[in-house]
Protein: Peroxidase
Organism: Cucurbita moschata
Amino acid sequence: MEVGRVGQVTCAAFLIACCLTVRTCSAVGKNKGRNLRAGFYQYTCPQAEKIAADLTSAALGQDPTLAASLLRLFFHDCFVNGCDASILLDSTLSGEPIEKASLGNGKTMRGFELIDEIKAKLENECPEVVSCADITAYITRDATVFSGLPYFKIPAGRRDSVISRAADVFHNLPTPAMTVDEMAAIFTRKGMTVDEMVTLTGAHSIGKVQCSVFEDRIYNYSETGSRDPKLQAAYASYLSAMCPPADAVPADLAAEGGDRLVYLDPSSPFRLDNSFYLRMREGKTLLQSDQNMADDPRTAELVGKMAAEPKMWMKKFTRALVRLSRVDVLTGNAGEIRKNCRAVNL
Ligand code: HEM
């Protein structure tokens, strides 16, 4: 056989092997999650959801601020190549910088230790059965319920990715400077609607943001005015007090890095509710992206509806979260069930 042909055969064989085990073919096996189902571990690890829920409840009892971080962690995992626990990896076989290390995830991403704890317990009870991706989905549901929404079932059957690349983060996640068009383009690419985008952004009714993320709205808004005129005056003054300008940062804060965290919704920082949409309409949002949703004619009406109908928003939120949980998942024989959520199996 001539050299070129040998090369082709070897390459084809490699691809087939690689795609059969699906350890390195990122595109293979990703799907819309229609084959996920509630009660997936009913026979293989019936105690899985309860173990995850008990440990999550204990962790949230100690630190209620973690609920918001779990929701954000899940969103960021699902939007960067699917709900495949790629955000949990500390390293991969390729040695490339990982998702966790990307500035798009930032230093405020939390929840990894809780997932480690749950995984360790589940590996003891039912080794190599429950995926890190499903654990992440379960505890996001638990954090949502802890924050005041009614219980809902979350389907399972996801498998874990062996790929995690910082380079995939930026173009897959919305940023606070984006227009509604730009954010909608990302959500649409993930198979989600603009309505679901507005609904899920109600997650900003809990949790915190670093001053550095929004302080241009208080100090450096435009050439004609330093403060964003959309910010309600009293709220803007509160924000200036919380986030002093760089030359007035007190010594204790400077010692901590100078970037304070401010509640997204100080009126009910631990309760997931539609108060966020009311605040959006009153000029009391931190993120420019949220303000853009309140202003843009395509989303303003949805914001108004969600502000007016708390029960409807709750229902839509849990439904949209389930839809999010199905984005580009690995199922069947794709990916793997990691033994340790921070590392691929060797
Ligand atoms: C639509 C566009 C979105 C943008 C531009 C955006 C941006 C941000 C930013 C910049 C932060 C602050 C991070 C920091 O300071 O470290 C944040 C926090 C947060 N985001 Fe979003 N986000 C969006 C949608 C979502 C969605 C869909 C969810 C959930 C499903 C979500 C959940 C959260 C939560 C819960 C926090 C608080 C996290 C904590 O306290 O640890 N966000 N978001």
